[in-house]
Every structure is written in structure tokens, then in C-alpha cells.
## 1
Amino acid sequence: MNWDDAKIFLALYREGTLRGAARRVGVDQATIGRRIAAMEHALSATLFLRTSKGYRLTQVGEVVLASAQQMELAATDFVRAAQGVDNRLVGEVNVATTDTLGTDFLLPALAALHRDHPDIRVILKTSTQVVNLPLREADIAIRTVRPSNLDLIIRKLASWPIGLYASQDYLAWHGLPKMGSGFNGHSLVVYEPHWQSSRVATLLDEPADGAKIVAGVDTSLMLRQALLMGLGLGEMVVPLAERAGLVRIWPERQRPNPPTPTKYGWSPIRMCSKLHESGQLFMPSKRYSRRCCKPWLKWVSRVA
């Protein structure tokens, strides 16, 4: 199996479908199918089983998977080592973040960065999905949760409180909620992932058993837009809500332990040496510290 075969194999393993694997690699579905069939013929073994839920690895495929992942790590390290020789602040940086952070912080940072370093090209990828930085799905990630991967260099960029907000129109129609009322007679817009994980429905630690949930959203950008449209009350990061012109309710109160108060930036800059199960030692990479990522993080920190 060569590296091209390994890429096809890993793409089908991760996507589970020929279409998904073809999209990831940049070829058509028929090519994926032919390459997998050729690998299985060359190895005289079945690597995947086709099930109702997609392609699943066989026992032989599980064994091959470990080798393919090692090839991927070696190829990634090779590219980083080769590109790290160039000390100029030029080239392309892939940055992964959410749509809210991209709109409010990264785009202003990008404008400032471009003025100082016009030869750096930024590819901004906005999604709620967590990317795999060691496998170069992105060079830098800006998120509101701290990653658990010890191989990443992590920098805290900002820390924000969370308050309760609504639009002027909503408050003109419904009035201010009273503390201790359970938000009786009010409508709520909630951030669905945090709301589902809560044992008790609360806003700023205030029980919300008297309120009606009119909408659940899965991004902060959609939450902000829903509040601006007057759909109801909702919790939001204070700087983002105030930039949007929302009205803060009970400004003396804020969530004591907000689920997303902190913004982190991380990248595979000077990755820690790690001894893998195979015994192979992958040395630290210095590509991004020498090229584009440091000025990018500097400008994001200024805007935040």
C-alpha cells in the first residue's frame, strides 16, 4: 500500500460512504470503489463490509488502519518539515472557527493582518465541527472550548461574561421579567446544546419553569439574530450582544459559570515530541511559528 492508497482507505473509513470519501479526496465515487477493490485484491483480503449504515472495517481493515494512520502522520510531518525552511511571512493559513467568532472577531483581524502582511492568504472555515489539527484539517482553530490534545499549543485570547438579553421591540411588547417569577408569560430562545445538557431549565440561575421556549438554535449567530427579531429572551456573551444593540436585562447579574466564556486559539506550532505505539518518534514541527500563524494570532488577540 502506497500513500495514495492510504489516503483513499482513510477517507472511506472516516466518511463511511463512497460519496463522502470522494468529496474528501477530490475524485469521483467510481475511482474510490476501484481503488478499494484493487487494494483488497492486492492484499487478498476484504478491508470493508458494506452495511446499511455505510462502509465498516473488517478485522483485517482494523489492522491496516493503524499502518495507514502512521503513514498519514509521517506524510504530514514531512510536509511541515519541508515548508518550515522558508522564514518569509508568506503563504496560506487555514483557520477554523465558528460563524459568530468569524464575523465579529476574525474578519476585523484579517483586515488588520492584510495591511501589515499582504502576502499571507487566510482560508477561513466556519463550522461547529471540531477539526483535526495534527492531520492538517486546519492550521489554527479559534474556539470557545479548550482542546484536550496535549500536542497542541494553546493560547487564551479572551474571557467573556454571559448576560440576559432581548430586543427593544420585545421588551416594549412584553415588559421586563420579574425576578422569582420563573419568567412567567415570557418567551425564550435557547442555545440547544447547553439547554439539552441542563438538568434544570434556568437563565442566569433563575428558574424558567413559567416560560415558553419558542426556538432552539445551535449557533451563537442564530441566537443573536433570533433575539434581534424579537422572538424572546436569551443568554448571550456580553460583548457580542452589546455590539448588536440588544438590551441587557438584570445587568447586575451574569452566569457565574458560563459554558462558553473563554475564547481559545490553538495550532500545531512546535508540536510536542510524541512516542507513538509503533516506537517511532515524531519530532516537533516549526513550520507555522516561522511563517504565518504568529502574526495571525497577534491580530486576533488585539481585536478580541
## 2
Amino acid sequence: MAVLFLVGGQGTPSVAAATSPPRGAMGVVCYVTEQTSGAKYAKPAYLDKYRVIALDASNVTEKGRSGRLYRLHYGIDIFKLSTVSYQITDEKTGEKLSNFALSEGDLVIADRAYGTINGVAHCINSAANFILRLRTNCFAVWDENGEKVDIAARFAKLGCGEAASFKGLVHMPDGGVKPIRICAHSKNEAARCESEKRLRHTANKKGYKLADETIQFNEFVVVATSLPDNVTDAQVMDAYR
């Protein structure tokens, strides 16, 4: 499937053949950039002071007999639909936020591959804000008493479509401790069933037992953010979606 990637300082297009149909943030980035290049969309007031960047990566295959596999790491300003950053590496280079240069005023939005403590540290060290989706086995979050927080349990009473958050502490790679805000949105029944179906398919394919805590965690969309309290929980989740 040919997908148009806008790359280069002036948004110069090049075409690469994707190894699979667009999916997740990167798929949306590619498709929307292809369909609506040059368009701009109204930014909500609560995000007005930020350059809102969606970051992701996708494998691309070189045309010709070699079929060499590369990985495109791509960042787009989601309201201007303009390229912010890109880097082409071999497929061994993992998806991590340190692949991108960030700066003060940036608001990074990225999926679960980037929701790591190293990713959080890179944003903080770059003075950038972030909304990063978390997976079940993400970094530990601690309360003010030094107890590890059960993230899914904190959101267990959320009704369908409701959003909430709590504040916690995380231990940084350099040994420091930083505050963090964890937000979640409760999925509807259809989304929960589809999520569990995908999880069970992956577990069966890879030959492991699906843990109960993984099923419970995936009843929610959970993100870590550095946005201030005047940005509501619902607004944080809307920004991620």
C-alpha cells in the first residue's frame, strides 16, 4: 500500500510502500497528511499555548529487489498538519521519545510504546509537556506514603465514558523523584470487548496466559500527563484521542 509521508523542512513529499495498512497514531498521521496536506484545524483554547505534536513510527520497505526494511520515526503538528521531525533508521532502532528533539512549549502525544519512564524523563529534561498512553506493565507510580499504586483499581469505579485522574510520584532514571498525573477514560462495552478479543488473540498466538490485571487495565485508556490542573481530565483524554 503506497502511503504519502510529508518529510523535509518544507514538507517535501516522498512515497514509501508500507509493510502493513496504517494503524494507530502513525497510520492516522500518514493518512491524514496524504488527504489534507496544507489544511489547518481549530486548536481548543486549553491547548493554545502548546505546539501539539503526535509522534510515532512505522516500518517501510525499500522499493526494488532488496526489499530492505527501514523504520520511519515521524512527528507532526496535529493542528497545522505539518512535519515537525522525522528520522529514518534501520528496524533495530526502537520506538522511543529520545529519537526526537523536543523543546519548551511542545506537547507530545504518543502511544503505549513511548509511555516509559525514559520517555517521561526525556520530556521533562527537554522542558516539554506530554500525554503518553500507558500499558499494563508500565513504570511504577507511588503515592505520598511510598506505597505502589494499583492504577486500574484507582479507576475501577468509573462509569462508561467517564474520565478521572490522580496524582502520584515516579522514580526517574537519574534517581530523582517527580510528580505525575495519571488520567483515564473508561471504555464502553463494545470497546472493552474488542480490546479483550485482541489481547486474547495475541496471548494465544504467542503462547502465554492472559493475566487478569491486563484485562482489567485495558478496560480503560490510561495516560500519563504533565498538563496542569486547569486542563480537565476530560480535556486531557480528548486531546489524546
## 3
Amino acid sequence: MLDNSKKNKKRTLFILTFFLLIAIGAGFYFWQIRGQFQNVASISIISPSAQDVWAMGSTHVISWNTKNIPSENKISITIRRIPPPPLPLDGQEFDPILFINLPDTGSVNWTIPTAYPAGTYIIAVNSYKKVPITNVIAVESQPFKIQPLPLSQDIYPLYNSDSINWSAPHTYSLEVPNGGIFGSAVDATVATGTMNPSKFFSPFDKYYKNKLTALGWKVDNSLLANGPASGQVVYRKGDAVIAVNFLTIFHDISNTRPEQCPCDVDLSLFSSNFSSSSPILTAPNLSQ
């Protein structure tokens, strides 16, 4: 009985020693692997993040974090569009390279050009030693959206919105004497072949004159533009701009006599709601 007891103790001690050695080995392996993972080079994108909506013409910060990447490495940033909406069958409508050979500062400002169609996009941040690019370390952002700037809420409700088929808001550059103002616009053709164009544009012009004046907007007389049965009125409030336009297109045009109807009539509304427009619109001549 004593011999069996000693044998059992030895067997138990052996088993405990065996599992202790396994545990020590597993722990050593875990810490070794953990150290390897901790030393892996990686990039994470902070901005843009999932479901962000960035407006064309606006400036945003693209930001990222790098880990275990040499500080002398350079950064390039690229962009691609993904469905929806459907992509073009042949190439892209824009340059996919946003930046190249940036220092790894963790962020860069990007002003979104008007060439980018509205849609869903992904940005990639790439780290590399030099050009030509080899052994690149890269990561892609979550999908985000690029859309036109929203129209000013003071434009709504749109004139005669129940019977006029206004377009969806789209990017537009309003031409003024000192350059162009980037913003969004809607437009509509309200008459074709009419003999009385003022029947269509006069109520439109009056509607926005009364509406915007009541909301504190003032006409900038320096930006008034007129033509035969056509006109542009620019309203200002701080740095914000709203333009009310109507255009008459004459079917009968002659060099020897004035244009004559039948005519088509187009209406359009434009707004810009950010201060980058203000350097162009200097010294306004506002109606009192």
C-alpha cells in the first residue's frame, strides 16, 4: 500500500510538472507572438469615417495614424468611387491620386473639386519609402459620400413647386465680375414656344423678391444682370449668396431686328453658404 501511495504521488507530481511546463511554454509563445504583432507596421484612417457626407467645394481634414512605420516614410492618398450609383464603363471621371510624397504628419486638408460626381467613395492612405513605390503599407477608409452643397433653406418652398419640375440640386459656378462663386443650383424649363415669356418669369421674380426680403436678404446691385426678357438678381446675407435667374430663349433671332417670340423660358436658383465666396464678392452695393 505504501509503495502504491508513493507511486501515485510521483505520478501526480509528474502530471503537475508536465502541465506546468506546457503552461510556461504556451505563455512564452503567447508573449513572443504578441511582441511580433505589436511590431507589425500598420495604418488606421480616422477621417473620413463611415457614413460621413462631404460637400463638393468644401474643405475637410483627411487624418490617419501610423504604427511601427519609419518616420521618414512618405504618404500618398488615393480615392475611388464605388456603387451606387453605377460607375462609368470606361475609366473614372477624375484623377484618383489626391496627394503623393506627403510627410507622415497624420493629416492633410483637402478641398473637394467640382469634378467629383455625387456618389460613394473610399480613400486609401499608403506609406512607402520612396518613388518608385515598393513594399507599400496601405489601408482603405470606410465608404463615405460626396454630395453637392445643400441649397439654402431660405429658397424653400420652391416657387410653384407643385406644377414645376425642378431639377435635383447640382453643383454650379455662378459667374460674377471678379470670378465664379461655387455652390448648388436647381433649374427648370417652365415654357416652350410661348408668346408671352413675362407671364412665366415675372411671378417667379416677384415671389423671391418678397420672400427673401422678408427674411433679411438684400439685393447686391453691383451684381444685377439683365438681357432681353432675362435677368439675374443676387441677394446677400453675410457671406451667403442666393441668385434668382430667368432666361428667355428666342426662337426667331436676326441680326437686323430684335429677337422675337415664340420663346422658351428657363428659371434657376443658386445658393452658396460658405465664406470662401466672400473674397470674390467684395464691396457689395446692397439695396437698403
